[in-house]
């Protein structure tokens, strides 16, 4: 069963007189409970694809459906609310809010929706990421790996229908990267968490069960096994 379906996505950036076709007719369907890696050379469109699939950016043409809802038709406020409730996003640069503690960063989306988080699940995630002891720290008091682990808890706390991660291990050392990938795999197994992750690294991509390779804004391969993709 597909949790997300995208059809014929195009995105053209205009930089001065140059037009860049960042997405060039991409159609893709993401199965519930699947773990997908998106790889490809620098500039192939990976981040643009993730941003469009997650509603952060609007495509020039094409559609994205999350379940029955067409993201591409939503206005800003509805999109923001839907993203808070149903979509998790992990960025390479973490983007924690520096004035708030880890705990507060995790809870902000819930405050905005006047909802209470599942405390047991948040505690489980913080402990899995070895961040329970650091929950009252401010981002500036944490290492890069700790900040990313906190950002991952924030992204997963509402049990999103789909988690997008853009180079989530790009700024992490081997040990931290391993913990992040192990958590994604554990959640996939235990609660059927759907994950779509961009990476440059074929070894990291191999941890997923599907590898989509992009070139010049197009999918050039989409496999469950070894992949000839240049990344
Ligand atoms: N805001 C923008 N304005 C103009 N061009 C852009 C913009 N964002 C991306 N591009 C261009 O679109 C293309 C795809 O960019 P994108 O960031 O999606 O690639 P990527 O595969 O994620 O690259 P990397 O691996 O280097 O992060 C690139 O050629 C890039 O220069």
Automatic annotation (TrEMBL):
Keywords: ATP-binding, Nucleotide-binding, Transport
Pfam family, one: ABC_tran
Cellular component aspect of the GO annotation: membrane protein complex; plasma membrane
Domain of life, per lineage: Bacteria
Listed GO MF terms: ATP binding; ATP hydrolysis activity; transmembrane transporter activity
ABC transporter domain: residues covered: 4-231
Protein name: ABC transporter ATP-binding protein
Origin organism lineage: Bacteria, Bacillati, Bacillota, Clostridia, Lachnospirales
């Amino acid at each position: 069963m597909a949790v997300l379906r995208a059809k014929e996505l195009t995105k053209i950036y205009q930089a001065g007189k140059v037009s860049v076709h960042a997405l060039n007719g991409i159609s893709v369907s993401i199965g519930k409970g699947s773990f997908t890696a998106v790889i490809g050379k620098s500039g192939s469109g990976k981040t643009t694809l993730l941003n469009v699939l997650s509603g952060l950016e609007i495509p020039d043409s094409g559609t994205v459906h999350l379940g029955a809802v067409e993201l591409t038709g939503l206005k800003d406020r509805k999109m923001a609310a839907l993203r808070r409730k149903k979509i998790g996003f992990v960025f390479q640069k973490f983007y924690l809010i520096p004035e708030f503690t880890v705990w507060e960063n995790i809870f902000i989306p819930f405050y905005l929706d006047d909802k209470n988080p599942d405390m047991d699940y948040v505690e489980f995630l913080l402990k899995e990421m070895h961040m329970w002891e650091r929950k009252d720290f401010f981002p500036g008091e944490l290492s890069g790996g700790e900040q990313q682990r906190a950002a991952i808890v924030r992204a997963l706390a509402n049990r999103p229908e789909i988690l997008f991660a853009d180079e989530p291990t790009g700024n992490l050392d081997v040990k931290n990267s391993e913990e992040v990938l192990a958590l994604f795999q554990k959640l996939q197994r235990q609660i059927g968490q759907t994950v779509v992750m961009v990476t440059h690294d074929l070894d990291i991509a191999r941890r997923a069960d599907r590898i989509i390779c992009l070139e010049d804004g197009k999918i050039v391969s989409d496999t469950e096994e070894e992949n000839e993709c240049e990344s």
